[in-house]
Predict the structure.
Amino acid sequence: MAQIKKTKTNNPKTVNEKAPSVSNSKEAAVKKNKPKNLKKPGTANRKRGIKYLKARKLVDPLGLYSAKEAVSLLKKTAIAGFDETAEAHLILKQESFSVQVDFPYDQGRKRVIAIADDELVMAKIKSGKIDFDVLLASPKMMPKLIPYARFLGPKGLMPNPKEGTVTADPEKKAKKLAKTGVKIRTEKKTPLVHTVFGRASQKETELEANLEALIKAVGRQNIRKLIITSTMGPGIIVNLD
């Protein structure tokens, strides 16, 4: 019987080539699956319009301006095609701060004041529809509002005797608040306040008077930093010394 000899085949590919290691395979898989042009959140360059860039050149980002100078710059840097709001952004020295500000001139924004004693208002509250900025209530209505305290409280809408939103005559209080007063407060767990003190179209004297009223109500000694700006304009730091 003839014997069949087994012959070895020298395949250069199998002899000279080493099998890829597990670590190399993993690295290759990571490189293959790695997304291209991966950027950290917030690092993308934000493109600004020509109008904004021109407006920004008028303001020294590190400069300190008097209230009068700051208001003048705010009006000059209001570059949008609509009547921008005049905004104030404050960093305070304390948290959980609130105060009533009585502006001598209109803010340019109508506040909606609701009275919980009104059946329609209560119906909106029960349905979760909030279309008002201030909620007033008489003492007899407070027990009916307690079930909604967790909903109204975080929004700063729960009537409170200390803030004057619980009153025996809510209608009289509503007329008084509808004039020029506004309640401002810090954000939750942060000493930041954001509010509006007018419109860019208002006279400089009116905006300056409103800004001074805001500073006086909060207290210069309580403010670490105050920046004003129009809706689309650059920030302007106000000198508080």
Remarks:
- The beta strands are 85-92, 98-102, 113-115, 134-136, 181-185, 192-199, 223-230, 236-237.
